[in-house]
Amino acid sequence: MSRQITQPVNQVRLTNVAVVRLSRGGHRFEVACYRNKIVNYRQGTETDLSEVLQTERIFTNVSKGQFANSKTLQKCFGTSDEEEVCRFILDNGDVQVSDQERAAQLESTVREVASMVSEKCVHPISRRPYTMPQIRDGMKAAGFMVHPTRNIKQQFLDCVRLLQENRVLEIERAKMKLAIVLLQMGGNDDENSNAHQLAERRDAATTFLVNEGVAAADILPSNGDNDARIIFLSDPSLYRRMDGIARHDDVNGRLEIIQQCVTEEGDVTLGHELERKAQQQQHRNENHHLQTTGINATQSDADETNTNVNDEVPTLSDKLQSGLRLTSNVAGSNNEDEDEYHPTITRVANSRKAQKAAQKKSKKAKRREKEDAAEREEKIAAEKARQKERDERRGLQQTASAGDAAASQNNVSNADMGENKACNTCGGSFAPHEYRSHFRSDWHRYNVKLKMKGCATVSEKEFLLCDSDAFF
Hints:
Layout: E1 17-24, E2 27-34, H1 38-43, H2 49-52, E3 59-61, E4 66-67, H3 70-77, H4 82-92, E5 94-95, H5 99-120, E6 121-122, H6 132-142, H7 152-166, E7 172-173, E8 176-182, H8 191-211, E9 229-234, H9 239-246, E10 253-259, H10 270-329, H11 336-339, H12 342-417, E11 421-422, E12 429-430, H13 432-439, H14 442-452, H15 460-465
Antiparallel strand pairs: 1-2, 1-5, 3-4, 6-7, 8-9, 8-10, 11-12
Helix pairs in contact: 5-6, 5-7, 10-12
């Protein structure tokens, strides 16, 4: 008697499914959709529900195939029309995203942020943009993490700020090319007066631009007195301030954007690279010159103070003697002549105090340098001692390997005889009355820790030679 295999004919397999979930009235409602149609529906490009939904039924659990009944729909949504409820769930529900889709979304966000950085940022000296691989490597090195729902532009600004703070890349925002167009002033037909007013407005606008942080080299020269356009390069973060300058009463103009990002284009030539290297070297030399100038100025001030003090010492002694003579001659009378010397004496005394304080500071600095040098020498000596001790331990391990092998053979023979018991961790054999105490010893505990870390164990002799602080 043959048996007939019965298969379910009413079972529906949903493939390429995306679940939109909504909780309402203490119940959970789900609809099964196509993955690539949900976004189109919410953007308004797709309006046919049959193209969006895999089945026009409302579930309480799509994975188990449990449907929601009409009473629950009427209670929670106020209607039992499934098409209307499906539209409400599609508009207000949450799309359940898998791990692969989430990873793809994050990768897309990273690509968008890196592309925006590459388009809107340049090298400070060469004025050329970075490539996408360089930007992505810099983002990884700086530890920048994208947010799946945050604005792309805000994440771009955070990424540039993080790259600049960590100094992973020499990068800055590409400057914008703007123009302030001066509007015509009515009520005056004299050309000379109009040209004079235009020049005054240009000067006022230029002054405002320099005060707001625009470099004078970034303001392009005018074509004449009648030129009503002021073309300049500005950082994008100053755009609102530039617009305020254009609307100022003394300028009376409007702001126009000529180019969003100003970058160097074309192939890089050898002459251009040499010029860029020369500019870098010149910039470094200027910084070094400023630092040395400040140090020399400080030293010259100290020398002048010492010279003034040395010049004033004889004057101080002479005036003290004259003051004593005047005091002895005019005792009991008005001491007006003596008061004339008090400011000079006080000033010289203060300068001598300043000199002594400077000498004390210099002595403290020298003493601090000696202490730092002694501390460095102590650290170097301690590191050499640790290295020497480490080398000695390695030598002991090599010499003890042969003894451990012989001991293991003895352990095997003793085990066969049934007299001693072996420890697999430490590699030694022990009598029955010592076997339990060995597991409580510091040697065995330390070898267990080494074994858990994946390191080689040490013998008992090596353990006894080392200080206990080195192990615990």
